[in-house]
């Protein structure tokens, strides 16, 4: 049967508005089943988790189901799945908690490829603990972050290596398993930002070597919340600041306040939706997820190649007034998600963003909070135009994008 993008699109009510969505890396559109799960939870008897009333048991079941869904998605242990408001909030909390175990002179490694959410929390935490932040750079010409870039910053004092699974700006997928192996040799923990990666490829936290893996359901067709997966033993060894009467069990002691049960139900629905994207996939939900995400990866890669070929054709048509190609693609890493960062020599990417938006094509320009990466690429704090793919993007959308960019480039 194979991947059926028409059937997939029919499940996304928002697409009826008629926009071509290349803004998925900022937050994806949501299928009907996710919205229905959120609504069904909010119109069912609700109470805090417990075992006495049916409403309490309902909330408890929602939390356990969401942990199990995320565990299947990531190849993680459901007992180590922590929910929170956002990946950013979870990372700030984790960094503070880990920093309480650091001493002056300890070191933390962050990378310039990362989203600020996997940089700044570590900088603040290091400052509080008297630890040193060491920066791993990346090559702006190749968009690659290599194992050597990180390994040269490692020392016996390294406590944490914070690295992205995939750059939300460039799509680059660094060699996380090799980076993790080098970090583990020095006894450091590896914290992987999986927000961008999870939407585009099968994920297995053990293969990655991630001690902690954080992601955000709203990037993979789910609702707005964050989730972090770690080995239960690691969480058991940590003591986050918490309210005295709240549970001291793991993972609950990391979940501050009452969980958004409706969003957790939506997260489970999103994972189930992903698992069914490949109609030929069979077996356990984990197996169907792995097969479906591999299918999504192939499908999105095909669209990405079409866009790249279309952009190359636009450049063949002529050079701009400065004698340069009209569009430059900065996403060049050998291994990457289907995420293209574009600039237009002599033109403001914000103008391209607005020009496309007026034609119903949503492809924003900015740094997307990957501020260090944008600066390293020479785009400063303004960034460039990002074209992101999602399972519901089709050839018609790509045609509209290329036509819009062609028009923009042929403007005087
Ligand atoms: C790679 C990456 N990391 C982290 C984040 C932050 O996620 P959240 O909004 O859940 O805090 C984002 C959001 O754009 C992202 O793309």
If you had to describe this structure to a student in words, what would you say it looks like?
The chain has 412 residues and is of the alpha/beta class. It is built from 15 helices and 13 strands. The chain has helices at 5-9, 32-42, 54-74, 87-99, 120-129, 147-151, 176-185, 195-198, 205-208, 232-236, 261-275, 285-316, 349-358, 371-376, 395-410, and strands at 20-21, 81-84, 107-111, 132-136, 158-164, 189-193, 212-215, 226-230, 328-329, 339-343, 361-362, 365-366, 384-388. The strands form three sheets. It has a seven-stranded mixed β-sheet, sandwiched between helices. A four-stranded antiparallel β-sheet has the order 9-10-13-12. A two-stranded parallel ribbon has the order 1-11. α3 (54-74) packs across α12 (285-316), α11 (261-275) crosses α12 and α12 packs parallel to α15. It binds pyridoxal-5'-phosphate. Pyridoxal-5'-phosphate (PLP) binds at residues 25, 86-88, 115, 117, 164, 168, 193, 195-196, 216, 226, 369. Pyridoxal-5'-phosphate binds at residues 25, 86-88, 115, 117, 164, 168, 193, 195-196, 216, 226, 369.
Short summary of the structure?
The chain is α/β, with parallel strands linked by helices. The protein has helices spanning 5-9, 32-42, 54-74, 87-99, 120-129, 147-151, 176-185, 195-198, 205-208, 232-236, 261-275, 285-316, 349-358, 371-376, 395-410, and strands at 20-21, 81-84, 107-111, 132-136, 158-164, 189-193, 212-215, 226-230, 328-329, 339-343, 361-362, 365-366, 384-388.
Q: What is the number of helices?
A: 15
Structural class: alpha/beta
Question: Distance between the terminal alpha carbons, to the nearest Å?
Answer: 47 Å
Number of strands: 13
Succession of helices and strands: HEHHEHEHEHEHEHHEEHHHEEHEEHEH
Overall 3D geometry?
A: globular
Residue share in β-strands:
5-15%
Radius of gyration, taken over Cα atoms and rounded to an integer in Å:
22 Å
Q: Give average pLDDT, whole number.
A: 97
Percent in helix:
40-55%
Low-confidence stretches: none
Bound molecules: pyridoxal-5'-phosphate
The strand order across the widest sheet is: 2-8-7-6-5-3-4
Biggest sheet details: 7 strands, mixed
